[in-house]
Give the backbone structure.
Amino acid sequence: MNLICNLFSSVFPSLGGDGSQREREQTIDSSMRFAVLGLIKGSVFWLLVASLLGLIVSIKLHSPSYLSEYGWLSYGKAYPAFWNALVYGWLFNAGLACVAWIIARLGGRPSGNSGLLAISGGAWNIAVIIGLFGIFKGDQNPYRMLEFPSYAAPFLFAAFIGIGIWILLAFKARAYRSSYASQWYALAGVFSFVWIFSIAQAMIFCMPAQGIFQSVVAAWFGGNLLGLVVAPFAFATIYYLIPKALGQHIVGYRQSGIAFWSWIFFSSAAGLASLVNGPFPAWVASVGVVASFGLFLPLSVFTMQFLSSLFASFSKIWDTLSVRYVFYAVFAFIVATALTILGSLRGIQEVTQFSQFNDGVRYLFLVGFAGMAFTGMVYYILPRLLNKELPNPSLADLQFWVQGLGIFLVTVSLVYGGWAHGALLNGSDADTIAILQNTKTYLFLTTIGSVLFAIGNFAYAVSFVWILLSPRTEKEQSADLIEPAPELEYTHS
Amino acid sequence: MQDDQEQPHLPGVDASKASDESVLRVHAQIRRKRIEGSPVAFFTAAALIIVFVFAWFYQRRYFAEYDSKGVLAERQHIAAMEAYKNRPQEPEGPVVIDGGKLYAQQCVACHQASGQGLAGAFPPLAGSEWVTGAPEIPIKVLLSGLGGEIQVKGSTYNGAMPAFGAVFDDAEIAAVVTYIRGEWDNGASEVTAEQVAAIRSEIGSRGAWTAAELAEHF
């Protein structure tokens, strides 16, 4: 690693300079402005695409004839397209933008090489386009979150390697020798994705494992993509934003090492719990259930740390846009992880296995937790990258409430509706169609939630384009729009 | 700060409340410092214990199926138990009574296992004309007993045969009579419980027979 890093630093000269703290920050921001903005642009674009696809998917569930004349938009294609656009399009772009910026800022020294980040960020988006095109064309693979056709995988992998190397180089170039939790999670997410994606591609598509073992690998990959890639990026964001935007140190930070390792350890096997009642040796699924239950340990540490830190400065939360999102994300994380733990138990899977329950939990985890955390971080980054104020904070205010309500509605209707659906399937001898009709209300509620979420996303896109295109005011043309940050206060004896 | 216009409800820029360097420094400091009686540490330890307890009991319940041979053996065992519980029951039918067993319990002390009796005291059954003749004679003797002198195979006996009418039911008397009429090369016909029941109702309750009374059947 050292060799590679030294090689790169000789190619790309260090841009670090002397000067005040604010000037150093501006140098860092300007060195990566184009690349990070590119990732954020990609994330906003894919968020709009994903919310549109999510709307179509949720409408098709209660009105099957909707858009049925378009074969490429059938439910079987729109559903995986929605989830892949959501994760690989929106969350990866936004998460990588946040993490790259955090790593560079916490490093305290510009690492340069921003061409690498920009090119691989662009390549990533092209790979997502190829993958989605493949899904609509009918080349999709049958495994959850691996639906992108095999010819998109090398592009995706290569692009991620580029972004990952940039993040490692930025970490290598840091000026401060001590490390912070945000950096651990950022690097963990980068390493995990390379590991799980290469293993999954190799064992399912390149040198296929025998028989049902492919399903075990796919379940492992699906769980790890959420738990070891998307979630760590969101943790990195939350750990960074609470002290930075709230001026509050993380309460109980001493325990974050336990939280980190137990999260990595348990989360890496938690996905296997979805194999319960499948044609697998019972111990495989049981390992997943025990690992899911083990998430109770990091969950309790995160809950104590984040909630105590947020409540310590409770009055400031609603006046700080980015921390609002963090607040929502923390609650969504607690609820989603609690539901993951409960939902992994055999007795509950008996009811929820063939229902929308798990989609609801996954939606809350991805959108309510990771998505909201990234959105908050983007609102923190944007004024600093562009040296502009948000032109219309009321629009962002509206966006927060509408998105928050939409996510809440979708989650409640999927989780509770899924539970009701599963209980009826098990406990009643009515026709499957009659049971589906009976739970149709929840499907309508999902559509209402999706519409609200899409409206919020549209407001987000408008805010984003507005701040990009609006001419700079006099105040914004000066270099001191962002005031230099004070020292973090820590008065605990 | 005093003027609401200067500090809008939601500012366009979230202020930086801490420099990056101080975030790193303060948190590194917190990590190094041990805090006595930290509630976060306490509840973390509690959560760790809960996770281990759950994992222990869950693996006891479900990891046993680690070994598919053991599972198969256990399932076969359970299936065998079930099969035994649900085995086809014997249909209700006539109870077959072992006459030989009853003879060994009640008769063998006097008449002997060989059926030869004891010379001078108890008459023989093997080859006895009282046994192999008409089936009514042994049935009546068993039901009500026999007293006084009797000539058997040329010897005279004077004893008291007890009555078994209250001890044995019809089927048991039929079984014993069938046994003694068939055993020891006697080769006489079998006796049914119906015959015994008919004779029992005919003779009613009475004292012991004498040889003269029974001789009418010859």
Remarks:
- The first helix of chain B runs from residue 20 to 32.
- Chain B has two domains: 37-85, 99-217.
